[in-house]
Amino acid sequence: MTEKLLIDEYLPEYEAHQLDAVVVEAPPDAAYRAVRDLDPDKVAQAVPLLRVLGRVRAFPAAIADRIRGDTEPPPECLPAEEYQAAFVLLDERPGAEFVVGMIGKFMTATQLEFRRFEPGEFTGFEEPGYGKVALNFVVQPYGPGRSLLTTETRTATTDALSRNRFARYWTVVGPFAGFIMRRWLRLAKRNAESAERDVVQPEGQQ
Fold first, then answer.
1. What is the CA 5 to chain-centroid distance, rounded?
2. Fewer beta carbons within 10 angstroms: which end of the chain, N or C?
3. 3-class secondary structure for 186-198?
4. How far apart are CA 124 and CA 130, in angstroms?
């Protein structure tokens, strides 16, 4: 891909990142439809272990909230259980790339809080104490009838204290992030290839 990546426009500088790719035995349009159709809930339904990992990740933060006496988040924030609304589509080049963003507090095991925001607010958001995540999926042709599906996750924090905390935390959570995204790609691959077989098979039977 010679065009500038959309993710470079939203989070060009970052402190941690995860890059994974898979070859899909289906054309780019099928691969793109398959990955565009997925969301965290669909991936978790297909890979039950991810639900377990999600509960394990949320548990320390829930206990910390109880100890602090936190009952309701401020209006600009979302509780951990509303994570779906926290992931906002930032931009899309249909058929080639889309970028999703998230802003939250997740720099330690006892932090898990998401921030409400509009797509246009993501790049300039600098309120201390937060981290920003940009996640893209890119589809490219990879020979006749095949595609290369790539995903990259980038994370940046908004102040030095958060940066130091997240650097330590990433050594623990980084491998789990990679595990999740590789499962995401494999599910998209499976769905794209299955859909392509459903299209081709009737022709082969004639």
1. 16
2. C
3. HHHHHHHHHHHHH
4. 13
